[in-house]
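Section: Multi-chain targets

For targets with more than one molecule, the full set of components is provided together so that the structure can be written out for the assembly as a whole rather than chain by chain. Components appear in the order listed by the source. The example entry contains two components.
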Amino acid sequence: MEKRTFGQKMDEFLMKDSTFILLIMGAAAAIFAGTFMYIRFGTGAFNEISIVAMLRDGMDGGDYAAAAGFAAGFLIARVLEGPLVGLLDIGGSLQTGVGIGLPALFLSMGWQLPFSNFFTALITGAVIGLIMGVVIMVIRKVMPEGVAVGGTSVMMGAGNATGRYLAPLIIIAAAQYNVYTGIGAVLGAALFYKWGKEMTGGAILGAMVLGGIFL
Amino acid sequence: MLEIIIYSAIIGVIGGGCIAAGAARMFHAPEVQAMGAFRTLGELNACNGDPIAHFSFGLGFFFSSAASAVAAGALTQDVMHRIIPNWGAAALLVKNKKPEETLHNPRKMMCAGAIVGGVLMIFLNTMARIIPEKLSLIASEVLTPATGWLINPVMPAIFWLAALDAGVQTGMWGSILGGVSALVSGNAVPGVVLGILIGKSAEENGYKSRIVQILIAIVIVMFLVIAYFRGFFSQFGL
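Its structure, encoded as tokens over all components, is:
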């Protein structure tokens, strides 16, 4: 799509702090439109069955309090936390907050306009994203330089360390589920480890292959 | 049907591109504001730039998401947390093995994420049924407990120990806020993370500095708000 110089400009642009506003607008628009898809076509909400069920309850019974209350808590907390740590949790803020909480709030107020067609949903989502993005950027700018850089390096170190636990956890889960998935995960992980590949992939593939054949 | 395909493609391309770019920015946080999740960061690191690992991790969640899409029309949070970033990374890493030039580059991840997102959304919203039920079941029975344990209690423990090792102030704040967070929100990680931030800031600037006071005030308000919305206070019969 883009050539050399344009590519470099694009790289620079996407690494700018304030570009975050555009990214969150796009993500919020997509997620809000996903909820529109769910309301209109019965598929496409970006969330777990249990959380989508709260919205469903509201649509069926007219009581949106559960969905709105549950999701609003997440939304507010994540928007405050995001700029402090430099990493916005999209699960709580966007997928639950924008995808479930705000639609539930709008519907409980009887405001149907965002759901009247696909493009109003997309635009509503983008506007919500814009507001959240601006709020997050303002919090970031208001925070003087004093917020410790050392703190973030501690957290990033811990974040990186968590990854190492995944492969053993997958093997344990596979072993607990079924003897074939367990054997598959062990073999896959051992082979991948010997080949110098990431064990995580080997454990998942092994469990799926042996489980798929024998279960 | 055509309507669903077109809308799905639009949602997937826009959302997938933005989410993948936000995920790539996680490797440059906190200098730039990123979006994603600490667990996504950890999982991306677990696959360590190996395209096969990224692909199979995404594949497992793809099967369970497809099952959930068929069952209830709910695509699960994993689409954006796991499948799009990992498949985007896998696609880029096949050509260039260096994560610094691929996975960490927001522009490349945006392109890969947009393509993955578009195709994935069309598939999940129209064709999820063709995934054999057995594979979806195995994927969710194996991956759901494993990643569930990772989120709680493995991640809280790792962050907690990191807070304790980083000094008395971070250890103190991390432990208190981590405990409060576990009580109020069900997971200690957000509290420990904020505790590390407050502890380090206090260590460097002292409790007299405005920034530390503002931080503490924001965090207290935040936990009160979460506690209120999640019905924490009603447990005391209030």
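Chain A has a mean pLDDT of 87.
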